[in-house]
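I am still getting used to backbone structure tokens and would like to learn alongside you. To get us started, please write out a protein record for me. Start from the sequence, derive the backbone structure tokens from it, and show both lines together. Once you have written the record down, we can walk along the chain together:
***
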Amino acid sequence: MSDVLLDNQTGASVGTPGAGASGIFVDSTAFIICTKDQNGIYRGRSNNCAIASQGAGFASDTYVTNSNVLVPSFGVQAKTKLAWRISVSKTGAGVAAPVFQIRIGAAASTADTSRVSLTGPAQTAVIDAGVYNIMATVRSVGVSGVIQGTLDLSHNGAAVGLANNDASAVEAASSAFDNTALAGLNIGLSVNGGASAAWTVTQVHVEADW
């Protein structure tokens, strides 16, 4: 048996500590170690990654396997941060502008609701490989909550397969939505590489700071 054994708890069941103290608990929804400070602010970290390649595919909207993290029992907070890194290779097929969607829901699939949509630069008919970086920040929590997203691409050079230009940063915010009850839902990514795209996602890493 472990030297230290902590019962899993919901954030709500952990009382707010007095001044100068913080509570430590294992969240019973996301199974991560979290803290709760004297101001009632929770802190915890989740991560996920793929252990196998996905594709070739992505000619239609496709959920990126293991791009999802589970929202803990206390939900999201203002300043909750998420970051994805996706390593992609493409064939000479496909010239559309790829669309990345941050989705939230119970299915961990394209059935989940898209909350942020980020459209990258159009591709060219050239073989290429690169890394897409997606950042998201919860700006506010409430019945009109907002998430800000940013997409950036690093690849083999300007005017090659994954982009037809060297300016690859894209930003978009969600429409206002009720983000007060997201506990237990997945936040993940889907990608539509466009008609004829033949992408292989070789790696995906996601981290969330709640």
User: Anything to note?
Assistant: The CA atoms of residues 79 and 204 lie 23 Å apart. The chain has no helices and 15 strands. Residues 44-209 form a domain with the Jelly Rolls fold (CATH 2.60.120).
